[in-house]
Amino acid sequence: MTAAVPAGVGPRGPAPGRAGLLSRRLASTTAGHYVIWAVALLVLVGPVLAVAAAALWSTPLYESGGHLTLDNFRDLLGDPTWWRAVGNSFVFATISTLSSVTLGVVAAVLLTRTNLPFRRLLTGVFVLPVLLPGLVLVVGWMATWAPSGYVTSWLELNTVLTFPIDLYSLGGMALVATSVAAPTVFLLCRTTVLSIDSSLEDAARSAGAGPVRALLSVTVPLLRPAITNSTLLVFAVVFEVLGLPLILGFSKNITLVSTYLYDHWINGTSAEQGVVAAGALFLLAFVSALLVVRNRVVGDTGRFATVMGKSSAKRLVDLGPWRWPLAALAAGVLVVLVVVPLVGVVASSLTSIFSPLISPWSVLTSDNFEAVLDNPVWMDSVVNSLLIATVGGLVATVVIALLSLVAHRSEFRMRGSLQQAMLWPRMMPGLVCGMAFFWAFVLLDPTDTLRGSLWGLGLAFAVRSLAVGYSAFYPALAAIGRDLDLAARVSGAGWWRSMISISLRLSIPAMATCFVLLFVSMLNDSDPAVFLVTDETPVMGLTMLQLAATSTGGAVAAFGVIQMLLTVAVLALGRLFLGKRIHA
Amino acid sequence: MPDLTITGLAKSFGDNAVLHDLDLRAEDGELFTLLGPSGCGKSTTLWSIAGLHPPDRGRIAFGDRVVFDDRRVDVPPEKRNCGVVFQSYAVWPHLTVHDNVGYPLKLRKVSRRERSERVAEVLELVELGGLEGRYPHELSGGQQQRVALARALAHPPDLLLLDEPFSNLDAKLRERARDWLRILQQRIGVTTVFVTHDQDEALSMSDRIMVMDRGRVRQVGTPEEIYHQPADEFVADFIGTVNVLDGHVAPGADRSRVRVEGLGEPLLVSPPAPAEGAARLAIRPERIVVHPSGAPAATPNVVTVKVRSTAFLGDHYRYVVVLGDHELVVRTLTRIDHGTELTLELPPDAIRAYAARG
Ligand SMILES: Nc1ncnc2c1ncn2[C@@H]1O[C@H](COP(=O)(O)OP(=O)(O)OP(=O)(O)O)[C@@H](O)[C@H]1O
Ligand SMILES: [Mg+2]
């Protein structure tokens, strides 16, 4: 060999005697992986076992004594109100699913593949409810479309029209659910619509079909997997939702599974807690089964489908003279479903009485906002939620990134189970998640320091949002070539070192996106808090839920507007900040 | 520089056995090429050497340092001191050229000043001097590939491993890069394992070539040996173009005389066919001699054939002729005026006879 490369710079390979040291190093990486894996499984899956324990024990777990029993299940199944609740939930979920899938699919085709005027504006308004905190929209619906609401009364006073649906019935509840669920269906189906090769339609057209005919006979059938997927997803989500039926079902005493559990937890005796746990297990089993079926049907790839379809230039179908009437119809639907409720919530927050009998301008006031600012519990819950969302969001983002690296970028033997564990919280209804942590804290933390603290709440919120964050983070990680970190390994970096200096560094933009999503979701989450909140730790979502379920005043609307503004501000900041990140 | 010895290497993915007891030995300073069709296990072999995944069985040693031995020893990749150039280059997009190349040195705790000197030196070596401050996206594909090479050479490595490093370059650049890398490798004298599925690349650069097929070694030899004395029909067929004729050796007959359907006389072959019975005869198009005005008397293996088509391919002419049941491709450097028939000579030492497969 020649002297072109002096050999003195790098150390030679390790001497034979260093093999022991070497294997110890290797073992420490593996040991680190095992610790991470064990903690992740304990936190993600363990709490559910605690619910099972609570359901199978004769007394609440925080009391001593008791024995193994099936009585809780017997009591639950013997309760006629439980069965009524199950029936109501099925009816509610079925109506909501049918209407939102219909609306969502029609919108997906109409708004992405035709020359409907004002498509972009209509799309923007349509997806708005997905981004905003759900309860705020419900408050808006009540202020405007309830039997005594502003628009309903106005129509009755000034026109021959009436709003045909009673908001406080199962049908009315399903209508409100549709306004949130339909855009979800829309986003799922739009990805598919955009990915369909338009040459397939061209083939149909050259065979003699008109443009609309080609659209209906080629593209719509190809949507079937996306429709199945969104049907099962929407059914599962609507089946478990708590806030909406709690607020709207209150006056007519309509009980669903979720409100049954809520009611028995809040108002029942401690002896009933076992029954609630049994009910939660039922809910968990049913929702998990639906989502397992969905994964089977749609396959693994559907799991990570991003909602942002790539906007390839597709030839648009010309609707001809129909385009204006159809646009007017679409606008009308959106005014009813989205615009009126949103305007309603803002208007009632700014007036002392929101009623068609009095001009809103004459009762304009800032009293409602002042009432919120003066109420220590409400302000505390805003501060607490911001704390949980910021700290919890940051910690959860880092944890998601670390878990994803171990799950996807290591040679760790159990990494497959870690991948499953990270998606598992997606199957957990918010109520079940909260209860799971409640019982887990009872079992593992007898001093109650964690259960009564914001940390405990934050942990439950974080676990519930984990799957969302992971689904946003993982595709970005997968897009970073494996070769990049392997190149670091062969350059001499150990596993951790190569992860930190290469993979983590390159996924910072994805971590930022993940953080924004987690922040918004944890800021507004309410369901898990039902079981974990104390007088010292109110959070915004639950405070809003409890207020909206019992009163309709302007102060509630003001609180909702504040919640909405915080959410929108964070999303806008995220967009601004992330929009600028193009490097790396 | 150490040499590389692999014995009994086996690896499966699930029930898909990718490597079957592979043996390999690359000498000190040698450029050793793994050549084979896509999916034959070249990258799998290379990754096993680099320690990027553990084989199921076998033994890998760099000189007398054993880095893998039946799972008893498995030195992690960061301790093997290999330089690897990936097919994708894997140049880190968030680091400058200087930091990319300096990364292995930083991990080895080389002082900042020494590091800069060494980075400059290696970049000079790959002819990228002065580009230290650039980011990868400000470089051309060929430059990125040289950054990857510089990074692989920086520490410096005991063994250089290259996985199809030129496959992302265009044809012209690829040819230049070949010559350049060959000269560089000889100057440094680092033992190099080079993976490619491109036979021209393999022939023009290698000291020795190992031809692989479905996880098994077919032949190891110098480029000339591989080309002129392919060990079996697969190798003959995979490297360059070859005409294959079906033949037959009568039981008890002389094995250097092979009968071919449609030919009156048996063909003389040297060396003789390995066995009696069905045989396959391989002959390269450029080894067939054309006699436009008839062959001298007593020339062996002279045949008269019908010309089916003629094509001009720039640096040579290509004729497709019919010989018995077979079509034969013939290459000549000059144009041959011919009628519908042509006289050819198939020199006995240009014909390789193999036992028929299956
Ligand atoms: N991680 C893996 N999991 C399962 N099968 C694999 C994996 N990596 C490689 N294989 C299989 O092993 C076989 C050999 O792959 P390898 O990458 O070594 O081929 P190669 O010779 O490098 O091919 P190419 O020239 O296309 O790069 C292929 O059949 C491939 O499908
Ligand atoms: Mg390969």
Name the CATH superfamily classification of the largest domain in chain B.
P-loop containing nucleotide triphosphate hydrolases
Estimated helix fraction of chain B: 10-25%
Shape of chain B: elongated
Share of β-strand residues of chain A: under 5%
- The multimeric state of the shown protein is heterodimer
- What is the count of DSSP helices of chain A, taking H or I runs of 4+ residues? 26
CATH architecture of the largest domain in chain B: 3-Layer(aba) Sandwich
How much of the sequence of chain B is in beta strands? Answer: 25-35%
Outline of this structure?
The complex is a heterodimer of chains A (584) and B (358). With 584 residues, chain A is an all-alpha fold.
Topology:
The complex is a heterodimer of chains A (584) and B (358).
Chain A: H1 19-44, H2 46-56, H3 71-77, H4 80-113, H5 119-131, H6 134-145, H7 150-158, H8 170-195, H9 198-206, H10 211-222, H11 224-240, H12 243-248, H13 257-267, H14 273-298, H15 323-350, H16 367-374, H17 376-409, H18 415-423, H19 430-444, H20 454-479, H21 482-491, H22 495-506, H23 508-524, H24 529-532, H25 540-550, H26 554-580
Helix pairs in contact in A: 1-18, 2-14, 2-19, 3-14, 4-5, 4-8, 4-11, 4-13, 5-8, 5-15, 6-15, 6-26, 8-11, 9-10, 11-14, 13-14, 15-26, 16-26, 17-18, 17-20, 17-23, 19-20, 20-23, 21-22, 23-26, 25-26
Chain B: E1 4-13, E2 16-26, E3 31-35, H1 42-50, E4 57-62, E5 65-69, E6 73-74, E7 82-85, H2 97-107, H3 112-125, H4 141-153, E8 159-163, H5 171-188, E9 192-196, H6 199-205, E10 208-213, E11 216-221, H7 223-228, H8 233-238, E12 243-249, E13 257-260, E14 267-268, E15 277-283, E16 289-291, E17 302-312, E18 317-323, E19 326-332, E20 341-345, E21 352-355
Parallel strand pairs in B: 3-9, 3-10, 7-8, 8-9
Antiparallel strand pairs in B: 1-2, 1-4, 4-5, 5-6, 10-11, 12-13, 12-15, 13-14, 15-21, 16-20, 17-18, 17-20, 18-19
Helix pairs in contact in B: 2-3, 2-4, 3-4
Bound molecules: adenosine-5'-triphosphate and magnesium ion.
